[in-house]
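Usage

Read records sequentially. Each one opens with the input sequence:
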Amino acid sequence: MFIFNIANPITLILMLAITLILIFLGKETKKGYITAASLLTYLVLLIWHVIQIMMLTPELEELKSTLTSCLTIDFVMILLSFLSYLWVDELESRTSKKKSYNSGMEWFWGKV
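and closes with the structure output:
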């Protein structure tokens, strides 16, 4: 069974660096779809890891801890990507003078 192990430190650092580069690129160009690409990628990885953990056979039970680590990292990266998408989308709506129904980050910062 092929596992895309993002719990490996080198892979984790590379994926974090790519995500931060995409966030920076989205902020500079003020295009929300750039950060949405990283969000969709992590959502696909989350679904992939859930399917893999559901399909584990008793012979591969030792991979369960690796997959749960991958799921935890998936959730953290989805949170990071989602918040950055809301931020860049708000920047995009300000610069293009689009009417925004509500501020994307207002619900988050209003509770803090």
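Summary fields computed downstream for this record:
- The mean pLDDT is 86.
- The two ends are 43 Å apart (CA to CA).
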